[in-house]
UniProtKB/TrEMBL annotation:
Pfam families: EGF_integrin, I-EGF_1, Integrin_b_cyt, Integrin_B_tail, Integrin_beta, PSI_integrin. Its main location: membrane. Coiled coil: none annotated. Residues 582-667 form the Integrin beta subunit tail domain. One of its GO terms (biological process) is cell migration. Residues 691-737 form the Integrin beta subunit cytoplasmic domain. Residues 26-76 form the PSI domain. It is a single-pass type I membrane protein. This is Integrin beta. PANTHER family: INTEGRIN BETA SUBUNIT, INTEGRIN BETA-1. The keyword Transmembrane helix applies.
Amino acid sequence: MDLKLLFMSTLFGIICCSSAQQEGNECIKANALSCGECIQVGAKCGWCTDTEFLKQGEPTSARCDELESLMKRGCDAARIENPHGSQRILKNKAVTNRKKGAEKLRPEDITQIQPQKLSLNLRSGEPQNIKLRFKRAEDYPIDLYYLMDLSYSMKDDLENVKNLGTSLMKEMSKITSDFRIGFGSFVEKTVMPYISTTPAKLLNPCTGDQNCTSPFSYKNVLKLTSNGHQFNSLVGQQQISGNLDSPEGGFDAIMQVAVCGEHIGWRNVTRLLVFSTDAGFHFAGDGKLGGIVLPNDGRCHLENNMYTMSHYYDYPSIAHLVQKLSENNIQTIFAVTEEFQPVYKQTPAMLSISSKLPEGVTITYQSHCKNGVVNEGESGRKCSNISIGDEVSFNINITAQGCPKQGKPESIKIKPLGFTEEVEILLNFICECDCHKQGIKNSDMCHNGNGTFECGACRCNKGRVGRQCECRKDEVSTEDLDKNCRKDNGTDICSNNGECVCGTCECKKRDNPEERYSGKFCECDNFNCDRSNNKLCGGTGTGSSFLFRLRIICKQCIITIYISLPFVSQLTLMKHATGSSCLRECVQCRAFGTGEKKDTCERDCSYFNLIKVKDRDKLPQPVQAFPLMHCKERDANDCWFYYTYAVNNTEKEVHVVETLECPAGPDIIPIVAGVVTGIVLIGLALLLIWKLLMIIHDRREFAKFEKEKMNAKWDTTENPIYKSPINKFSNPNYGRKAVAL
């Protein structure tokens, strides 16, 4: 095995230590009732603190919206609460640039990872990015413990290991001048699988004339030492043992190596554990085969360097090993035969540190390794082929969702596996807005002090609801209050577009933040006006010397034309969405002789000049130096007509297309609807007829049955089909004299 490969990868893991331990617009859907609730929804959400921001019918939760939408709705950017996360570096000691042969440093004086401590303020949904540097220091101390399977099948490997100490010391001297090596061995629990064997078999489990040592669970043969010759001497004295099943008890041995630091001699330096075997492993639950049911306690049980509780505690689980190896900063390397490589290839991934993060916190990694290699996802946690003196970096994004642990601080630690150095990250969560600090408790603005006035709105006390906390929760649906939410006695509550809360309508929200209900009874909206070019009220437009602005107020399109000419200030035109405006009726009567004003056309509609054109291409376009409005209307016969309205100095001009655009034939939709309706009605009629016939048939059959039952003629004392089970036979010789023989 190429020993240089033992130090060729660095894997970053997480240890969590608790200090206390769209579709659609997500901001609108959250129905946040306070600024704090709003900013916890996501990083896109802001809260408008302007006290005059809400329109009639809009609930308090309408203050929470995406930033762009809030500004479009008229909230000044200075009145929007939108806190951001931040970070501070608390300890930032530079990595050590030390060459081999330089002045010897203590391990605690060597720095390989930077920075060492940070503090993050996390806003929900907003990642905080930190960059970590890692540099393999020259001449950094290393402890290596060799743990070997001494079952009979490893006999040849033991001969090779006997000279390993000297070779390792020679190779490691090229990497570090401070290297120590130790040795341990394992076989299997003595209580299993030898339960049915004889004592002689326990003393020498090998067959034939092979001299083997009795089986044992784990033995610490040599404490970590810098004496390579002592390693060779003690390993040379080891004898193989035997086992009756293929899996070995190696996990028992790994656990003891991890938790028995004083016995092993681990220092606070790079810690490596080489695990050598040619078989699989037992794990938690297998101990039941030998009657062992107590779970492994994860404690040291070495006496005279022997594991003494193998008969008492079960094997450890993989998760338990992960925890203990992580706590003791031990990196495990598996040296196994080709047959079991697929099994153990999965084990390093299982033994990588994956401790639980604080609730609501996620971490992603991006590694920048040698030769410009960039990895992301799970691969972003590691860099391979790191040699002495190499430097790599990791970009780490830490994101919180909501307000974990009610805002209590948390901490996590990030460290490279096999090293004792770590980065401590303190996590603080932004759960409230800055304006929360200026809140007025029991404010008069919240209906006799029934809430706290903060961030431009009332945050109601427990049991109170309403924009001003004016109602108790148990009275929000009373009949008297509902009357105040009806436009008249015959209409739905809040026009069926909202809910009645404390006698006031709170209008429903739409998935599209640009669309809203409003009005005292939620009777208004800004998305049901007539459309032109698929834009509400024709949308907005600009000309060379004027600007169109569009507002929609309670189903009315308010178009304001701002003119840059010095002699014209501003012109406002109102066009009703229902199409009953005076201008449309006048154009209709003068151009086509139809409409409601056809009888009074000359009297009411002579205030503009009418000019007919052949088609829409001939209509004026907005390039001249006076305001122009394009219109598209529909008459009572579903025919469309197009015209423009302009004010040229003091003259008002209307250009209209002289022909109507009417449907080519009858509207297919009503026809199809009529056909479908007819088919449905016919089907229902046939179904009713069939049901009626079945009822009549069933009644006739029942009457026939009753009649036949009454006319039955057989004798009721004897069943005509009854047959007795008793048969009588006569003996023909009965009563005759016996015949003499």
